[in-house]
Specification:
Length: 560
């Protein structure tokens, strides 16, 4: 990194932290600290909702996901717009009418304290883990970039987030997220056009799409019915819908964002804004990953993208085996350049479908894929405890080696801003849920100031927990999937509870509590068996909770 990159990165981060801390300190009461006195306009609500979901993982992992597997991951978000409509016109009016601080307060009013506590605990577990991962993601970047200790970086990043979140509460989160979202979009658009400008002069955007399509990277829609296939149209529109319905409708990290809205209408408009913009935004980020793929059709790509693993294997007795594979990849890279140049020439003459060339491109891609798998095996032989998956390092490798001075610092600021925005929302929601649904429920009425202090202490507590989890985290396929998998294991059950509360008055507290407990244990078992894609767990969990609760309630009525 150059001095200019350091200046851009450090100035951006410290401005956000200091501005957020100074502008929002001194909340007089719980409503001010947790709901920003219900003064948040719709645009800020919408930006805050988007920024909460757009963690560093989004900008670190998603391009790598597209590089390896193409655009199909966008199907994951197909259920989101529909979920936003349902939440906006069903969930939000109820939350605002009851004047709740957290989503789980509603459950006690509708059912009983046991159900409220169960839902709150399930949220605390999954969000506590998820927040740790959002801190871990940017730590990977600086660790790979600078060789700094990963644990130290987790502590530094976590501390930065804790500073303004503890000080300013929800207002600080909302205020800083507007700045963070601006930096995020500026950085991603800049990177997109820089990649295009670094391609050969004869390669325009249309050519990029054709090259990507010939390599299977533009296969967006998959209408297959295989439940083990992770990303299909049906898993997105069904499992994705239930996941988004649960995440945006019952997860306090999101509920807390729109509960701070000036009115029901303002909250609804903010959520609809997210529904309109989120899918295009994810499509654009995935497309950036596809651009990186095309870039490496004309430039040499490394055999393995994680520099730490490469250093380890080259310092081991597997060095010779690894270098042999590198040599083979060099030959493939040369062949790829030749084939793609010929393909571009064909495109100039409007010859879009040359089966021979496409066959050659696919064959080279398969050879490259096989070499990368062999490289992972060699790395594993050098160090059995090493995580060999390198999806999360693809985009990182590109920005480290090919972005100009200043832009590297800007893009790192993007990733850190995203990490801070998501982590801040996570800590704020964890503290709110702990303070309101657990602490206040058991200690009784105290002064507003007491609960402000309690929430601040809980923010610090969960910040320390998140940092601790970040320090023991390791890659699991890739981070974007890990976060969604963790959520999917818990979200279905929680969503089922809320759907019963909103739509099925027949079911009472005892039945839903028992049904939810059985459902959650069943989901754990299904996940352990690994028989369906994780997205379906959201649908199964919700359906199972509703069905079991109905059955238990009927038996209960008969026995009485």
């Amino acid at each position: 990194m150059e001095i200019l990159d350091w200046i851009v990165l450090s100035t951006t981060l410290f401005f956000i932290v200091i501005y957020g801390a100074l502008k929002t300190k001194g909340s007089a009461n719980v409503k001010d600290y947790l709901l920003d006195n219900n003064e948040t306009p719709w645009f800020t609500v919408g930006v805050s909702v988007m920024a909460t979901q757009a963690s560093a993982i989004t900008f670190l992992s998603t391009p790598g996901q597209a590089y390896h597997d193409g655009m199909g991951f966008v199907q994951f978000y197909f259920g989101l717009p529909l979920a936003m409509i349902v939440i906006a016109y069903t969930f939000i009016p109820i939350y605002h009418k009851l004047k709740v601080f957290t989503a789980y307060e509603y459950l006690e009013q509708r059912f009983n304290v046991q159900t409220r506590t169960l839902a709150a605990i399930l949220f605390l577990i999954q969000r506590g883990l998820g927040t740790g991962i959002t801190i871990y993601a940017p730590s990977i970047i600086l660790s790979a970039l600078l060789g700094w200790n990963l644990t130290m970086l987790n502590i530094i990043i976590g501390t930065l987030v804790i500073v303004y979140t503890v000080t300013g509460g929800t207002k600080a989160v909302n205020m800083t997220q507007k700045q963070q979202m601006f930096i995020i979009m500026l950085g991603m658009f800049s990177t997109f056009f820089i990649i295009l400008s670094n391609l050969p002069p004869e390669v325009d955007f249309s050519n990029v799409l054709h090259i990507a399509g010939a390599n299977g990277k533009m296969d967006i829609l998959d209408f297959s019915y295989n439940p083990e296939t992770r990303y299909t149209f049906w898993s997105g529109i069904t499992g994705g819908f239930f996941l988004m319905l649960s995440y945006f409708g019952t997860d306090q990290s999101q509920v807390g964002r729109y509960l701070s809205g000036k009115s029901v209408k303002e909250s609804q408009m903010g959520l609809i804004m997210n529904g309109i913009l989120k899918v295009p935004m994810q499509f654009f980020i995935l497309l950036t990953g596809v651009l990186v793929f095309v870039f490496f059709q004309f430039n040499n790509a490394p055999l393995h993208f994680n520099p730490t693993n490469v250093e380890k294997v080259k310092a081991s007795d597997q060095k010779e085996n690894y270098e042999k594979l590198e040599y083979k990849l060099e030959q493939i890279n040369t062949d790829k350049k030749i084939v793609n140049q010929i393909y571009i020439e064909q495109l100039k003459h409007n010859e879009f479908d040359n089966p021979i060339l496409k066959k050659q491109m696919v064959a080279l891609s398969l050879k490259e894929k096989d070499l990368r798998e062999e490289a992972k095996e060699v790395i594993a032989q050098a160090d059995k405890n090493t995580e060999t998956n390198d999806k999360d390092y693809v985009f990182l490798y590109f920005i480290m080696h090919y972005l100009p001075k200043g832009i590297l610092g800007l893009l790192l600021a993007v990733i850190f801003s995203a990490a801070m925005s998501s982590s801040a929302s996570g800590l704020n929601s964890l503290a709110a849920t702990t303070a309101i649904d657990i602490y206040k429920r058991n200690v009784g009425e105290k002064s507003d100031k007491h609960y402000v202090y309690a929430t601040q202490y809980f923010t610090l507590f969960w910040g320390i927990i998140a940092i601790g989890f970040a320090c023991v985290s390791s890659l699991f396929e890739n981070l974007i999937q890990l976060v969604n998998i963790i959520g999917s294991v818990f979200y279905g059950t929680v969503l089922g509870i809320f759907l019963i509360g909103f739509y099925i008055n027949y079911i009472k507290g005892k039945a839903v509590f028992i049904g939810a407990c059985i459902s959650q244990l069943t989901i754990f078992y299904i996940f352990y068996l690994d028989v369906v894609s994780y997205l379906w767990l959201n649908f199964i969990g919700a359906l199972l909770t509703i069905t079991l609760s109905l059955v238990i309630q009927r038996f209960s009525n008969r026995s009485n």
